[in-house]
Amino acid sequence: MYIYLSFLVGLSFMGAFFSIASHGLPDRTPLIHFSPKPALVSVKKGKDSDETDEMSLRALVESRCQSLFTEFHPLWWLFNGHLQTIYCVLGDFSKNDPMWYHRKYIRLADGGTLGLDFAPAEDHDAKEDTPVIVVMHGLTGGSYEPYVRAILHRACAPVNKGGLGYRAVVINFRGCAGVPVTSPQLYSAGHTDDCRQAVFFISKLYPKAPLLGLGFSLGANVLTRYVAEEGKSCRLASLCALACPWDLEQNNQGLLSTFLGKHVYSKGMGGNLQNLLKRHAKSLQTNPDHQVAKAMALTLGLKNPTIEEFDDTFTRVAGGSRPHFPFATAHDYYRWGSSHYVVKDIRVPFLAINAADDPVVRYVPMDGGGNGFVVMELTPSGGHLGWFQAGDGYVDRWTTKPVLEWLKMTGEDIVPPKRQLRQLYVDDDGYLRQEGTAHLGCKEVEGGGIIDGNGGEEGMLQGL
């Protein structure tokens, strides 16, 4: 993997030289799409006012999220999508944006376990209506990911220190970031029930707080599907999706169509997933006759798999629960799990940011599904979860400022409409459940505590 990345760096520099020589400096103006009929939202007339005005989402974004309309100027030595992505994977961010969390483990109704990392780690003074950012990370990451910390470090800092003063909860997928695997199932880009149950738990803890979704890559796809499925009954007040993969089948084909896409990015992601599986092999082979145990054995036997080979052998079987899983092929799973075709169903303010030179996500549906709640932005460059620019003495991400502006706007300025949320209740076994979804439920279990969110997991590539 590292040999391929070194080779890629050389190609990137050579390609950039000829591109600049032939065409001059690149255009850095972002492309922003609003619906011809933007949704109307209720906006507070003043910070402490109970009076509201109706305003179009477009006009509100243009006045409150001005950073979205600024040019992104990449660092001179990270001048294309390959280099931005490589730096996201190999860069040293250990001293950037330090975060500590308080972890709670929740057991799901099917026996699985999620790790919820709360920030600030010691939460004493926040008001009960303080906005809560609900975060879902990328492919094999966790709350320790530098792209997560870049936003939460500022969002959770006190107002008197330049932050938003918000709370945040990172939902760590089954098996990720030290979370144990306690059932024969992992996760996938399309399965939303784990997210749904975590949101039960978070909304029960903070019943008066607006919940603001924030997703990265695979986590962005999950959250996009979740808010679309929930429609007008969504417990999240808004969502921001960064580097969402959208059409999984088309973007997978894009990866496999080039040498670098197949042998660097696709195999890098496939290898990361295989390493994650190795870590939890013992937990997944309790019953050797179970279909997941059999799929795991086949997957561990793959040599340097692409992400499609991993998904075709394992994710299509173990990436979620019935009635959808198992799928016959990875392509059936990709068609089902994509998010581009459900954007039309979203009924909360939604912002998506992608980069045009993202080597992982080549297809971005910039029409927003014709949905007035949807704002789509495509920056000319930035790579996959990169967007690195020069900061004040350190490497910063361009996306941080516009995302913070979006969170502040949706957390403080917009007054969410009254929604008909289904009732939550606790059953005789202590599981928190929701009316109408009796098969789902969760409860807190032992473990967790204060954790250092500034490291990573040994043997796993960050930034994916």
State the name of the first-level CATH class.
Alpha Beta
Spatial order of the strands forming the largest sheet:
1-11-10-9-8-6-7-5-4-17
Overall form: globular
Main sheet characteristics? 10 strands, mixed
Strand percent estimate: 15-25%
CATH architecture: 3-Layer(aba) Sandwich
Overall pLDDT, averaged? 93
The quaternary organization reads as: single chain
Tell me the series of helices and strands, N- to C-terminal.
HEEEHHEEEHEHEHEHHHHHHEEEEHEEEE
Helix proportion range:
25-40%
User: Over the alpha carbons, how many angstroms does the gyration radius reach?
Assistant: 21 Å
CATH superfamily: Alpha/Beta hydrolase fold, catalytic domain
Query: In angstroms, what separates the terminal alpha carbons?
Result: 14 Å
Domain AB hydrolase-1: 131-362
Family: Belongs to the AB hydrolase superfamily. AB hydrolase 4 family.
InterPro entries: AB_hydrolase_1, AB_hydrolase_4_sf, AB_hydrolase_fold
Pfam family, one: Abhydrolase_1
